[in-house]
Design a protein that fits this description.
The complex is a heterodimer of chains A (116) and B (115). Chain A has no helices and twelve strands. Chain A is mainly beta. Chain B has a single domain, classed as Immunoglobulin-like (Sandwich). The chains are: A mainly beta (116), B mainly beta (115). At the A-B interface, strand 5, strand 6, strand 10 and strand 11 of A face strand 5, strand 9 and strand 10 of B.
């Protein structure tokens, strides 16, 4: 069975400082990994994805994430936070299950606050 | 030209009523999903359809019944609504390719409030 752990439920940074949102996963096969962002009262938007290509993945709005198989991590980073980055971020893993179907598992989310 | 659209955006209804949420995607994806997001923001899959065929049916009360008339549509019908059904329901679609996944595209959500 696969699982996702977002290590921080809440992260607060100052505008212009780096952002680090941590995510660890467990999976039996070859997972695909995603980061989604949800702004208040909005839907989920795909930030970036890892699907067995380059381990450093660049996404929208200056975000990037590095897939580290040895550490089973997929942390999300951004060099300089902007006020508009304040939102809920979800780490998501997708992999094959023993049942032969593909399953998507969400982390519990990390709320990012950006202080002026 | 919204990729995944769901209606209505907000739904307030009384306990015991029957309601439907509609979802349509214009991405040509083969697979569609319904997710429920609870008050703590946790997202849990409810159903998944691939080419109109049900492939995932998680432990969901049978008051919830998905209907997929074609691969571009996946509607969710809920009978005898209960207070605990209050949540945000997200529709999504995806396309799984041999090179991996394109990612899941989500609708903007339907906020259901049962009073």
């Amino acid at each position: 069975a696969q699982s996702v752990t977002q290590l921080d439920s809440h992260v607060s940074v100052s505008e212009g400082t780096p952002v680090l949102l941590r995510c660890n996963y467990s999976s039996s096969y070859s997972p695909s990994l995603f980061w989604y962002v949800q702004h208040p009262n909005k839907g989920l938007q795909l930030l970036l994805k890892y699907t067995s290509a380059a381990t450093l993945v660049k996404g929208i709005n200056g975000f990037e994430a590095e897939f580290k198989k040895s550490e089973t991590s997929f942390h999300l980073t951004k060099p300089s936070a902007h006020m508009s980055d304040a939102a809920e971020y979800f780490c998501v893993v997708s992999d094959w299950e023993d049942t032969g179907r593909r399953a998507l598992t969400f982390g519990s989310g990390t709320r990012l606050q950006v202080q002026p | 030209d919204t990729a995944v659209s769901q209606t209505p955006k907000y739904l307030v209804t009384q306990m015991g009523n029957d309601k439907s949420i509609k979802c349509e995607q214009n991405l040509g994806h083969d697979t569609m999903y319904w997710y429920k997001q609870d008050s703590k923001k946790f997202l849990k899959i409810m159903f998944s359809y691939n080419n109109k065929e049900l492939i995932i049916n998680e432990t969901v009360p049978n008051r919830f019944s998905p209907k997929s008339p074609d691969k571009a549509h996946l509607n969710l019908h809920i009978n005898s609504l209960e207070l605990g059904d209050s949540a945000v329901y997200f529709c999504a679609s995806s396309q799984i390719r041999t090179t991996g996944e394109d990612g899941y595209t989500f609708g903007s959500g339907t906020r259901l409030t049962v009073v």
